[in-house]
Amino acid sequence: MTEKYNMPDVRGHFGPYGGLFVAETLIPPIQELNAAYQQYMNDPEFIAEMDADLQYYVGRPSPLYYAERWSRELGGAQIYLKREDLNHTGSHKINNTVGQALLAKRMGKTRIIAETGAGQHGVATATVAARLGLECVVYMGAVDVARQSLNVYRMKLLGATVVAVESGSKTLKDALNEALRDWVTNVDNTFYIIGTVAGPHPYPAMVRDFQAIIGREAKQQCLAQAGRLPDALVACVGGGSNAIGLFYPFIDDESVKLIGVEAAGDGVETGRHSAPLCAGKPGVLHGNRTYLMSDEDGEVIETHSISAGLDYPGVGPEHAWLKDTGRAQYVNITDTEALEGFHALTRMEGIIPALESAHAMAYTMKLAPTMRKDEIIIINLSGRGDKDMQTMAKREGIEL
Amino acid sequence: MSRLAATFAELEKTGRKALIPFITAGDPSPDFTVPMMHAMVDAGVNVIELGVPFSDPMADGPVIQRASERALAHKMSLRKTLAIAAEFRKTNQTTPVVIMGYLNPIEAMGYEAFADAAKTADIDGVLTVDLPPEEAAECTALLKARGIDPIFLLAPNSTDERIEKMDALGSGYLYYVSLKGVTGAGHLNTADVEQKLHQIKARTNLPVGVGFGVKDAETAKAVSALGDGVVVGSALISKIEANLDNPSQAKNEIIELLTAMRSVMDS
Fold first, then answer.
1. pTM
2. DSSP state of B55
3. Do B104 and A29 touch (CB under 8 A)?
4. How many contacts does A have with B, using Cβ atoms within 8 A?
5. What ipTM was reported for this prediction?
6. Residue A340 burial (C-beta neighbours within 10 Å; 0-12, 13-18, 19+)
7. Is B49 a catalytic residue?
């Protein structure tokens, strides 16, 4: 790559992916949002306010932790964990909600809506809405409401209204549909905080820019702590916000491999998975063109993953582009393998990861032993596992 | 002249407005749709919008969402919707049929293959809810080359610039979404619609159909006084939903409502 990476174009296209595929009523508010985003991302006062929030409210920078014991055990590359699990609210999601909520405030919006899968983005949104005194409605698939009830309770404590979505597959994609319907109905006073790098332009680029602090910090920390750039970055990919946040500042560093880990559910070959980059094809959903899991008639098919946060049939369009250009590679990890990753990190390092992040752990267990001891892997530990205690206990036949 | 242009020209000559029903293809079952289309024509409708069921109908309210789900349960698809339209066309050469749906089924088929299939089915117009002019150039050109009208949506918050864009890119008619919201929502405000249509009409010579929020003969009458056509969807599909165990009753109630609308619109 001789030219500096510079995506998307002004219309939000990453090659054939991304774009603006929404009904007419949403065009004006999206244009308004895009104008505000372009303005404030170059406004020193806005950036200073956001940076202060990230430092004093979120707790950034998050540490880059050297997992020495686990590295020794795996016997290959040295493993570092980017500790997004230590952020306020327990995941990387708050990096983005802090930024978008400040934008909402600047734009004079009084009502915030969001979709959520695992509930991490919903909690992160409810949190910033509480802090800014904004009304907050979170849409969550009924299936996810049941399997992530702790986060539902957290959102309610924070003052948010949680709407259980009963349509379609009752998971994240249906929550997104319902949030879009709310937005189209309440466009005048409502700001839609999308939690991942998907949706119509400018969301994929905007959410990436808010999450890119992960990679900027990781690069600096790796240089300071290990004296060199890492050789590989590993992150789980549902919509792909934590992965793009880590990858983006490294895209022009050709020596650094970028590896996204999708959820294979019961196994990609079974059809019961959430791995559009590994096993889907390009299509259009939720405002952008990207790799998508749909049938031959173009109907979106139901996805499966033990982790609610990865249970989504699409993926951010920038990942689709990075896949096609070969800059990043995308692999997949089954539910069973993810559980091994979950236990390994917990027992070897005393850190309980979110089931989403456990997919990245599990792939690292395969990757690290194939690498030299002087090589470095950074894994994005995107969230902590507290929210998954019920799911884990149920899976392992334990009554809490 | 396209069938849509001819239809609107003829209506204008007689000082009448278009009555445009929307039903979802294959709801409540695939064999319901073609006879329903013919019966609606007999009741005096001028254009038929045929909904293509989609798994994720983001711009639709609960009534049309459930219609999609019922149709998909019968494995209805874009291809089968086109087959229904072709079947209807065998015995009706005059009433325009507009396919209305979302982009992904068209992407899955491929733009060119879709345009060819739509031509073969003798479709008159295509309205793709999530394909705004920004992304529509390729698909629109393929349709126009085959004499099929691309229909675009306008909303209460559409600017002058966007109205002019739709006028340039669209043909057949423009579909004015009368309220901010999803299909079947709320109540439309006649004064607001009148003001917006005044703005739209100043910038296009295309006929303007008005939909979203048309519930009964009264609203149909009010809206028909303002635009060139009245689109009614959720109110019809509610009749299907209320009579799932008795489709012929659903059909009777739909015809009754459309007949009442036709009557007040012409009086």
1. 0.96
2. S
3. no
4. 123
5. 0.95
6. middle
7. yes
